[in-house]
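quick one before i forget lol
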Amino acid sequence: MAKTLDKVDVVTVGIGWTGGIVAAECAKAGLKVRGLERGKNRGTQDYLMIHDEYRYAIRYDLMQDLSKETITFRNHRKMRALPMRQMGSFLLGENLGGAGTHWNGMSYRFLPYDFQIKSMTEERYGKNKLPSDYLLTDWGITYDELEPYFDKYEKTAGISGEDNNPFWGKRSSDFPTPPMKKTPILKMFESATKKLGYHPYMLPSANISEAYENPDGQKIAPCQYCGFCERFGCEYGAKSSPEITVVPTALNTGNFEPVFHANVVEVLKSGNKVTGVRYFDTQTGEEFIQPADVVVLTSYVLNNAKLLMVSKIGEQYDPDTGRGTLGKNYCYQLGPGTTGFFEDQMNVFMGAGALGMSIDDFNGDSFDHSDVDFIHGASITLGQTGVRPIQTNPVPPDVPAWGAEFKKASIYNYTRTLSVHGQGATMPHKENYMTLDPNYRDAYGVPLLQMTYNFTEQDRNLHQFITERTAEIMKEMGAKTVVPGSPITDYDIVPYQSTHNTGGTTMGASPDDSVVNNYLQHWDADNLFVVGAGNFQHNSGYNPTATVGALAYRAAEGIIKYSKNGGSLV
């Protein structure tokens, strides 16, 4: 029998960026917050021996245990969905900090176009730019309305950058810290893109360029450019993550209590209110009920959607009828790019997760799409993230993939290879969605989440277009051999591509086309908030974290208002 605990003002399900931001803001406002994290406690002190590529980058030491919970995947409804048995296309973080611990730190704000994509696309190109199978929807909020929350997130995280990109939205203040070092490799990209008439800028980075103290008094160290960011925690405390920013801020109030090894399996609901959550202690097997005045789902995209589904909160999306919003508009991202092989050696092994330069000349609606068969686009970047020898063995296409010749070419090209890549936006399609799997269950007897997803014609056209642009840049950079990426066909759950999953718990102006309102308050239960990249109505040409952070600050503001006044916030 489940043991019922004392009631709290706010309970968060997960303690990463979103859970940490909500906890810090609500605790500072005097609310009693309990954070349930199914993983363990951890922090900078645990990463002192982090430079182990095999343990962390290959064996995924910081990631979710798929033997206990995974997802099932299929490309289309006629295909049988099967469980993902090891990490492939995306990497789900676990333990305190979640994916905010092992992220690279690229911290772009989404473009104004992203938030009003349906209305802006129709205004410029008409209602028939894309077929009706694409489910474009505005987000119910504009960039200008969200800008103050972007600003707050960036000051909390100490984001390093420069405000010289002509395509992104206006800023209320400059970046808190200067951009990272512009290395010789980045200068090559800068020179080539400027010669082509483009507008390069230093990538907004959560690998901090200089020592920084944020408005809450948390100190972040300067980056050491060691090259161990993505898939790793930071041993220097120099990569902004929840453990060194918002979580200690929440703890310092005395109003926040984290609970570890707490796997939430159900949100409890009575009438039009939620009453708390039910969870298991993953070490002892004990079952608990945590009552709360406000429940906030702050776990990863996929887990937030799954919790709503198993709790029967909201109407599941049906691709046959188009009814329902839960699980709808799942989107991923495209990875077009080009590899270049050079004559001269470069220090590619040095770098940082968000050390790079980008252009947005082909992102969002920065260029006229009248004569192309797609909308949106991609940021195009050269990142100097610090390539590591186990995972990176580049050889030209005419070299065998094994044997003595491969070994020789791999050693030679390791320091002579660069990649220019795009992050391509994907649009929601009626056949791409999430639901519960009817056949498979996790270690706690809960149905697995089932993902139905494939690339569409829009994706293939955009991918080819951006691939051609990256090849032009690489040629201008002077590579002796230029190797554009192959065209995409069907999406595959392997190999790794990005952890930029979005949708399924979308935000909007109406319950007819969204799960939550623009405070991320659930339409069917006004004391339930759902926070994360699942709120995105589509994916963008950027990494999602800064937009997730901004939305979390807005949600926290809404939770505090609700706690005082109750009722719907819109």
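fyi The two ends are 39 Å apart (CA to CA).
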